[in-house]
Amino acid sequence: MIPTITAFERSPDRGQGLARDMRVRWALEEVGLLYDVRLLPFSQMKEPAHRALHPFGQIPTYEEGDLILFETGSIVLHIAENHAGLLPADRNARARAITWMFAALNTVEPPIVEREMPGYLERNKPWYEERLPILTDRVRHRLDDLAGRLGDADWLDGAFSAGDLLMVTVLRRLDGSGLLEEYPNLSAYVARGEARPAYERAFADQLAVFTTASAGR
Ligand code: GTB
């Protein structure tokens, strides 16, 4: 059964692959699964029809027969558990890879998003300039530890896994901040992820959504 995911009809990132459907697309490409994409205009995201799939009215969602999932961590785990290629067979290695999935989403992504959001929502507030360095230091703190742990390794724990897939997509949200460039091993890690053929296919597909929408404007 071909799953269907949802994505922005017009992503605010203009096809940079920063919206979270990218990680689901990449996971599906890694395991070689065909999928359909339903594009959502912003006007429909909080409507009852979409909220029936996603209680918070967000993208992405994942539909496979009568299974409906939201939350990218859960969706990527579901794909990884049901298809070879994203989790090791060894039970302990598998548990460690899943631990890295949680680390990406629960420990590394929150300070990155917390630093990014005021730039959209609070830039004109009097506290913005004072708060930004504090938020930036929180990100650096995580990157210091992550860079130390990764060291010279290619991936976080042996072979590439769903943990790396999520971590790379999380780190990509630092694009344009200059922070990732302070950590050559993390920059190289993200570049390794981006060089994977499955990543390239996923990126091209989400970029095509943006270019097609722009051409029809
Ligand atoms: N925890 C959820 C998950 O992992 O699935 C978070 C889902 C989420 O934040 N979805 C966002 C959304 O639907 C899109 S990805 N937002 C609309 C809303 O909440 O009403 C976040 C995102 C959006 C845009 C960019 N960008 O333009 O760079 C980057 C990331």
Listed once per kind, the bound small molecules are: S-(P-nitrobenzyl)glutathione
Sheet of most strands: 4 strands, mixed
Helix-and-strand structural type:
alpha+beta
Order of helices and strands: EHEHHEEHHHHHH
Helix content: 55-70%
Can you give the mean pLDDT? 97
**Global shape:** globular
Unreliable runs, pLDDT <50, ≥5 residues? none
What's this model, at a glance?
By secondary structure, this protein is α+β, with helices and mostly antiparallel strands. The chain has helices spanning about 20-30, 40-45, 50, 70-80, 90-120, 130-150, 160-170, 185-195, 195-215; strands spanning about 5-10, 35-40, 60-65, 65-70.
Q: Would you write up a description of this structure?
A:
It is a single chain. The protein is α+β, with helices and mostly antiparallel strands and 217 residues long. The chain has two domains: 4-85 and 198-215, Glutaredoxin (3-Layer(aba) Sandwich); 91-196, Glutathione S-transferase Yfyf (Class Pi), Chain A, domain 2 (Up-down Bundle), CATH 1.20.1050.10. The chain has helices at residues 21-30, 42-45, 48-51, 72-82, 91-121, 128-150, 162-172, 184-194, 197-215, and strands at residues 4-8, 36-40, 61-64, 67-70. Helix 1 (21-30) packs antiparallel against helix 7 (162-172), helix 1 packs across helix 9 and helix 7 crosses helix 8 (184-194). The protein is globular. The structure holds S-(P-nitrobenzyl)glutathione. S-(P-nitrobenzyl)glutathione (GTB) binds next to loops. The site of S-(P-nitrobenzyl)glutathione has 12 residues, from loops.
